[in-house]
Amino acid sequence: MSRQGDSRAQAWWHWRGFIAFGLVLLGAALFVVARRDLLAALLMLLVLSGTGLATCPFWISGIWLLRRWWQKRRARHLLLAPVVSAPALLLIPVLVYLAAHLTARDGLLAGQDRYVVLIVVDGGSFERALELFDEAARDDERYREEINRAFPNISKLFLGEGAYTLNGVTIWPASSVPANTSIITGAYPRKNGIVGQRYYERSLRHHMSYIGLGITAHNNELSTSVKTIYEYFPEARSVAIVQVCNRGCSLYVPGQPDDDYAERAWEWVVMCLNGLGRRTGVPGIPRLTVITFAHIDHISHTTYLDSPEAVEAYTNIDRLIGRMTAFLGSRDLLGKTTIVLTSDHGIAPVTNHLTIDRVLEDLRFDTFQSLKYLVKTEWGMFESNFWKGGRRDFDKRYNCVALWGGNSDALLYFKGQLRDAQGALVQSSWDILPTKDCLENYHCGGEDINIVERLLQHSPGIRFVITHPAPNECVVHTLEGASRITERPLNEIDAAYRYDVLWGEDPLEYADAPTLRPYVNTGRWLTDREWLDLTCTMHYPDALHRLANSFGSPRSADLHLVAADGWDFTPAGVSRKVLTGTHGGLDRKQSVVPIMFWGRGIKRAELLTGRTVDILPTVLELLDVEYDPAAVSGRPLDVLE
Predict the structure, then answer these.
(1) In a domain, 110, yes or no
(2) DSSP state, 564?
(3) What is the DSSP code string of 137-158?
(4) From residue 417, how far is each of 236, 372, 397, 403 by CA, in Å?
(5) How far lies 563's CA from each of 128, 405, 434, 574, 577, in Å?
(6) Same-domain check for residues 323 and 416
(7) Residue 148: other Cβ atoms inside 10 A
(8) SS3 for 417-469, per residue?
(9) Range 578-583 average pLDDT
(10) How many CA atoms lie within 13 A of 87 on its CB side?
């Protein structure tokens, strides 16, 4: 190669980083154009982070000119440097001004001079926290001592002065994306359409994963029949910090799972917008804040649950709450603020991994695999492909879609099959819903199989296979027995349930409990709240209501799978040397969460139990906001004065 060719190759190699950076900026610009609700967030990030992406060309040009001046000692380079860099200095205040005005909403919360802060601790289990600090603490007095010692701020505010339950129950699947969405919308997956971390919509041949870049599609995928907490206050400024469900907020600040970053970002937003408000006349402090502390969840996946890092993650939540209340107090806002503290799900140890794609391949299905490409980050594996598969592939190639959740839950979808009078297969299509008979006599790999039986026999890691044979009925299958949950809607929110063991042992272990024995196999109906009160302390709390509400959406799977205790469904490439904690299951460790209220309008109370979907209607009742009962699944908790 000639010397000129060598120099060109070297120049290309030298500039490759700048070209890649430019492509990233172009992609970000196109993303912002497509998602106008994030424009203000991008502008605010430019201001708060100090990276100044939009001003980089000017800074780079100025630095290059200064370098040339240093090398050549030519005055024109020195004179041009500040001229070229000046637009960068001018752009920063312009961006600040735009950020303030594009997110400007000067209304009050339902016409009241009040503030609401909703804190979601991703993966935070209060029961697990107490186990970390004292395994011997089993009586109420010792529990109280441990709480006071390990969590002084939470103990003083929420337990000593507020209303709380340490026995709240999340949704199923107990995974981050659907569970967070249910908190922010007050609706179960049946209503809000977010049925799992990943899902498949058979009528559209559409696969979606919210892990990785797919999370950017969440707002568009969220059902328009429900409202987020931000959308109930369209005139008030609201901010979502590291919260996946942020549709309707006036300012969204994304970030990685760093709790200190999330708390600092909230302080920066309050300080910057407050300062801008004084100078521009636009009220700045957000009236509604939703902040997610995600570190516990992510560290629990990658380190042992009793590790020093896990203990530090829990105690750090208490410190951050102390900092937040002190910050509000320093601005005379604490007396006007109501703080809600909850978690989206719990966490449980996992020692065995079962790749659900491989299971279906072993059963000779042509299985679509959503997980193909991974990015290794400092806190674990992250899925980089958020969309994969075309309509032709689903129609011609795949007869099964197996999607793991987070990570002890899985959704399985199958092509429906039609047979003639002689039992011969005549049609197979995604437009056909597989019936109970179809799943029990499914033609696959040259033979007819009972899918439910084969799955349960394949591995001890599959604890439950849940089917939905009728609109108001679901059946829980295990190797040892099966039970039926029958639902009867009472109104737009509440439902009654009947529970019957069909054969063998009761999968949910309700028939053996003395308090539940009168209501199992007796044909008696209890309301969903009565079932909640009776089962909230059991190994599978509120299972009837949670499982029933996981079906009923066009995106719901044909079979829902729950892993056995100590197991999850992650692919081998993800689980190897990575995952030590899991969530998504039905058991108590993964399902029970704290629900706590403190501040203006909250009385002192300790509740037996509650649901995370009850938080939104409780906040709305606190602020005297009317809402459509058909759009929510919860109802207000008895915590208001």
Answers:
(1) no
(2) P
(3) --SHHHHHHHHHHH-HHHIIII
(4) 52, 28, 15, 21
(5) 20, 11, 23, 17, 19
(6) no
(7) 14
(8) EEECCCCCEEEEECCCCCCHHHHHCEEECCEEECHHHHHHHHCCCEEEEEEEE
(9) 80
(10) 11
Residues 6+ apart with CB under 8 A from 259: 293, 294, 295, 313, 316, 317, 320
Cα separations in angstroms, 564 against 171, 383, 463: 18, 24, 4
Q: Tell me which residue of 488, 486, 538 sits closest to 516, measured CA to CA.
A: 538
d(CA 167, CA 594): 6
With residue 503 as reference, give the H or E element that holds it.
strand 495-504
Among 553, 546, 535, smallest CA distance to 609 is for 535
Give the pLDDT band of residue 304 (cuts 50, 70, 90): confident
pLDDT at residue 308, rounded to an integer: 82
Whether residues 272 and 137 share a domain: the answer is: yes
Domain check: are 342 and 358 in the same one?
no
CATH code of the domain covering residue 251: 3.40.720.10
Distance CA(118)–CA(227), nearest Å, equals 16
Are 329 and 396 within one domain?
A: no
Contact at 8 Å (CB) between 270 and 285? yes
Q: pTM of this prediction?
A: 0.84
| Tally of structural domains, the chain | 3
Locate 524 and state its tokens. Answer: 């008696």
Which residue do the tokens 């909250």 mark? 602
205 assigned to some structural domain: no
Residues 487 and 360 in one domain: yes
CA distances from 408 to 10, 54, 58, 246, 427 (A): 50, 42, 50, 26, 33
Total Cβ atoms within 10 A of residue 488: 11
**CA–centroid distance for 426 within its chain:** 41
Q: Are 169 and 188 in contact (CB under 8 A)?
A: no
Enumerate residues 6+ apart whose C-beta is below 8 A from 367.
357, 360, 361, 398, 400, 401, 402
Q: Where on the phi/psi map is residue 455: left (φ > 0), alpha (ψ -120 to 50), or beta?
A: alpha
The reply to whether 369 and 304 lie within a common domain is no
Residue 279, φ and ψ in degrees, nearest 5: -95, -25
What pLDDT, on a 0 to 100 scale, did the predictor assign at position 307? 79
- Cβ–Cβ < 8 Å for 578, 615: no
Give me the amino acid identity at 21.
F
Cα-flanking dihedrals φ and ψ of residue 151, to 5°?
A: -130, 70
- Placement of tokens 């999340």 in the chain: 170
Residue with tokens 């509604």: 288
Tell whether 244 and 294 lie within a shared domain.
Answer: yes
Domain residues for the domain of 542 are 353-582
If one counts every other C-beta atom within 10 angstroms of the C-beta of residue 351, the result is 11
Peptide bond into 274 cis (omega under 30): no
Query: Max alpha carbon distance in the chain (Å)?
Result: 95
- Say how many residues make up the chain: 641
The gap between the terminal CA atoms of the chain, to the nearest Å, is: 82
User: What is the rounded average pLDDT for all residues in the chain?
Assistant: 82
Task: Write down the residue that tokens 């299972």 correspond to.
Answer: 543
Tokens of 432: 């056909």
Of 174, 214, 170, whose CA–CA distance to 408 is shortest? 174
Whether residue 556 lies inside any domain: the answer is yes
pLDDT in tens, 66-88: 566 555 655 554 555 555 555 55
Distance CA 160, CA 144 (A): 10
The tens digit of pLDDT for each residue in 517-538 reads 999 999 999 999 999 999 999 9
DSSP annotation of 518 reads: G
Question: Is 432 within a domain?
Answer: yes
